[in-house]
Write a structure and sequence with these properties.
The chain has helices at residues 228-242, 249-255, 283-293, 309-317, 377-385, 419-435, 485-491, 500-505, 527-538; strands at residues 2-8, 25-30, 33-38, 43-48, 54-58, 62-71, 74-81, 86-95, 99-105, 114-115, 128-132, 139-142, 152-155, 161-162, 166-171, 177-181, 188-194, 200-207, 217-224, 266-270, 299-303, 321-326, 330-333, 343-344, 359-362, 368-371, 396-399, 439-443, 455-457, 510-511. By secondary structure, the chain is α+β, with helices and mostly antiparallel strands.
Length: 539
Amino acid sequence: MGIAVGILLAGLVSGVSQGEIMSDTVTIQRDVLTLTFEASAHRYTFTDTRTGRTWVAGSDRFETTSVEQPYSDQLEIAFRDRDNDEGFRCSVRVLDDGVVDFLVDADGRSINVLLPYPPKPMADLTEGRLVFNNRSGGVIIPQDDPKHRDAALVVYGNVNGLDMPWVGVLDGAEGDGVMVMLDTPTCVLVRLAPDAHDHAWPQVELFHNMEAFRYARRMSYRFIDDGGYVAMARHFRAYAQENGLFRTLRDKQRETPLVDQLAGAIVVWGAGLDDRGAQTTGLQRRFAKEARAAGIDRAVISANNPYPIEDIMMMRELGFLVSEYENFSDFIVSDEPREDGYLAPIEEAYTGVDGERLKGWLGADGRQFYHRAASLMPRVARRKLEAQLDDHPKTARFIDVNPTIGLLEDYTPSREADQRDDLMYRIRLQRYIRDLRQVAGGEHGKAWAVPWLDYAEGMMSGPFWWQMDEIGQLIPIESRDALDPDYLAYGINPAVRIPLWDLVYHECLATTWYWGDGNGAFYAVAPELSDRKDLFNLL
């Protein structure tokens, strides 16, 4: 039943005079959490009755213009952003199990702003720690960590994005904390915003899509009373199971029996063509026989080009998965397009808001690739692969770029797409690969891609691996000094690394290091890192 409570701040609403404020403060108590909202200060106070911990989220940037309480567990708050004089609405609900839900809307208006809302939750913590999954399997860092201070982690972003749409802050001494969850995972980032003491707190920032605030955005604060990052991982695991972000390898195996051959497999990259473009007949056959004789009975043997059919069949008979590298995103501009999409007209690239076509990977040989719009990728994939399946009976496919690249907007008039559309098209491509009943691999993984991938390359490596010069081109480093300090401090440091992703998804997706960061990649200059990687793999 609704509760007829309304709060109007004097002078802000037409017809309301001074002295007509019913109350400046409203309180909701439900289950294990008490929420108090102070309208004049635009401040939320959350008290977890299980721990007695109080969290405060407020900002003088926002001016409350009205508050209503239509239901006992819900507030409807209107506010103005003083920095840009724009108005917004936020529906706030207190749910069971210490969850507070926020739904922010601007009624579809054309607003080109970055909105830091709701205000970041802060508390008096003995050992403040931040927990997140930024292309690294997971990290836990002190709040005063200088490298991540003021970092902007875009949900489902690329190198420095969030693979899972949440950031946690916890007290390492007590094990309690709060998860900042981005239930609407598009057009949103979490900034690790420092306070006056240079302690960072997770601040949600909502940004426009297609130059407007087209749709309402949902996010939530989820308070954890004990268990630290393990409890947070369990919480998101349950959330993922309820919201279509979870599918086990066992379930995938029921539709693709070959998934069973992925368990325990090494991932081997090779070449189907030599430097002159001729097929390397016999090379894969020889490797497969030697590997089998050495005791390797599980492997994904991948190449960038088609294998001879006799090699494919022989490797299949040995029990190996035979894969081919595919990239439907990057293409070279040409007036003479190819059926496989490698060469295509410039019109297939994304158009940015500035009217420019979006560039992609720059090859070591100077070739400039462009990013193909995601709306076109499923069609290109179908055109190429359906012509191949009989002649090249592979049992696996590796899709580069698509799972890992950040969500984009396309301003091409004939196929205009915002980030929500972009995500839908990326899922459509992965679903098509899944429908081929082949084992599906992809570059890196995101929570959205888990139902569609069987394995993901690069989940273990971390974002700072990419900072090393030409590492993506597989040019070996010559000394330990060439290893990036941030890679050592965060990417490979057991004091920082935690298996956050695998606590959630351990039986859903097999994960590996990047192609230039494998277990033995730096053995010649830093053999101890290979031992450490073995331990990370076991963990």
